[in-house]
Structure formats: structure tokens, C-alpha cells
């Protein structure tokens, strides 16, 4: 950290002590207090009906089918890897998507109810949609963790990813064949996803960060949008479904940023927490990854104190609630009251926290 920047950051929060003097106990105390505050940020529970629970386990069965579709020599290893990676535990009926908040998958449940699609979807359409969406959810997670280094590349991981991609593409081809220009629409989603993921752009603020993430969600939004186009063609239904689902995705992303703030700070990741900082503290965040010893401890202390004592986290929580309220309003207006209530349930604890 440069000498000029250190002085600016210290002056910003009123430290009078020399830069070389580090109260380690205070830094640890701030970290622990702030960590507790971050952990308090969470979505509320969603109550699922028996039918919705039964629908959910169709996604789990798709993962088992994925493993069985691989060469015999890797089927068991692939299953054990996914059970460990998705934290299912070793059990008879592994729950691969326990870490996914219900609207991530339940949007398909609500779209495929007969009171919504009025006979425009067959059982074959629903099965195909579940297959494609299962692979899309898995691939999004694998790609993200492979790219940031959390998952080291291996032959086993590559065969899992490759097979999931093949299955997803095949299912999307079948599903999109029922829609005018369906193939072109699928390609547009994939192009949008890779353009946003591979973009070298550094977004300047939280608004642009959220706009970019809408595009990074494109593989998740493909199947809900294709189904919506089949259910109510020549209307704005598909656009509304996409907007609601993206708002949910943004809310989840911002909540993850809050919960992972300490870890992201260590890595120097430019998340919504980083983008909400004053310019002087953004420089502290940027330099943290290349600092060590007393300099690193001082930078952490400055950042912890600002975030713990400021309104940064509350501001992001408010944005999370706004996005979920938007999703709830849109889906309610389109006749999907059950999905709307799920979005509202997610926001409940965050809304009560922001009013404290």
C-alpha cells in the first residue's frame, strides 16, 4: 500500500494512531462482530406443498441420470464427486439442490401447473424442461467455481461438465423446436451468457453490476422463458417471467455478496460490497490482496470498521428486498400467486432487519 493512500484511508475514519501500530485484538473483534452481522443476512424459509416437493425430486433424479449416462468406469466416481461437491452427504436419496433457494427450480413447477399452461404443455415438454434446467443449474455452478479456482480441473470434472452440456443442449433442442425461431432464441441466450461472463468490463457501480448479472443468468433463464413462450405465445408473458426470475437472481447474488464479504475482501473480488465503498476504501480493498503483516492487518481493520459502523450492508439488504418485491409483484400480476408468495417469504427476515 502506498504511503499517500494509507494516510487518506486513516483520515477517512478518524484514526490518529501511526500506521505501524496495529491493535490486533480490535481487528479480530471487529471481524468477529461483522461476521456475525453478515451471517444474520439470510432469506426466509419457503413452505413447499407435497406436490412441489415431489416435483423438486425430479431434479435430483436428473443428476442420477446424468451419472448413469457417463462411461461405466467413471459413473460411481462422478456420483460421489457430485454428492461431496453439492454437500448431500452419503445417503440413499441424495438431495443435490438443497443449497438452491426454491424459486431457482420451483419456477418450473409453477409454470407447468395446468391452471397456468391450460393444456399448452405436454408431460413430455415438462420432462424435457426439467432435464434442461437441471443441467443449466449444475453447469452454472461448475463454471463459476472452475473459473475462480475453487474447483481444480480434473479429467473427472471435465467429463461431468461435458456430459451435462451435451444433455442440456439435446433437451433445449427438443424444447425449442416447439417455438418459432426457437433455435435462434436458445443461441441468443448462450451468446448473452458467454459475452457477459467473458467480458473484461469493470462495472463502475452496483446498478451496472446488477445489469451485468442479468446477462450472466442467461443460461438459467432459458428454460423458464421457453416454457412461457409456449404457454402464452404472442404476449409479454415470457418477458415478465424473465424479469421476475432475474430479479430473484440479483437478490440472491447480492445476498451472497453480503455473506461472502470477508472472503471476497481477502481475494480482492470486486463485488457489490466493494462497489458500495467510498473510493478511498476501494483502494484499501484492492491493495489487501498484495499486502501482508501489519499493513494487511491495518487495511482489514479500516475496512471492517467502515462496513460494521456504516449503512453499506443495510443498503444492499434494501436492494435485495426491492428485487424480491419486484419479482413478487410481477408473478402475482401474471396469475402465479404461489410463486409470488415464495418471493415474499424469502424477503421477510431481510425486511425486518432493515427496519431495525
Task: Describe this structure as you would to a colleague.
The protein is an all-alpha fold. 74% of the residues lie in helices and 0% in strands. It has 2 domains: 50-199, no CATH class; 236-356, no CATH class. The chain has helices at 3-13, 24-39, 50-68, 72-85, 103-111, 114-117, 123-147, 155-176, 182-197, 206-216, 218-231, 237-259, 261-267, 272-275, 279-288, 293-309, 312-333, 337-354. The model is unreliable at 1-30 (pLDDT under 50). The protein contains 18 helices and no strands.
Give a summary of the structure in a few sentences.
By secondary structure, the protein is mainly α.
> What general form does the structure show?
globular
Oligomer: single chain
Instruction: Please work out how many helical segments DSSP would assign.
Output: 18
The description of the largest β-sheet is: none
Percentage of helical residues? Answer: over 70%
Low-confidence parts, pLDDT < 50 over ≥5 residues? 1-30
- Rg is 22 Å
Helix-strand pattern: HHHHHHHHHHHHHHHHHH
Terminus-to-terminus distance: 37 Å
Q: How many discrete structural domains?
A: 2
> How many strands in all?
0
Class derived from helix and strand content: mainly alpha
Question: Which whole number gives the mean pLDDT?
Answer: 87
Q: Beta-strand percentage?
A: under 5%
Please name the defining characteristics of this protein:
356 residues; disordered N terminus; single chain; 74% helix; mainly alpha; 0% strand
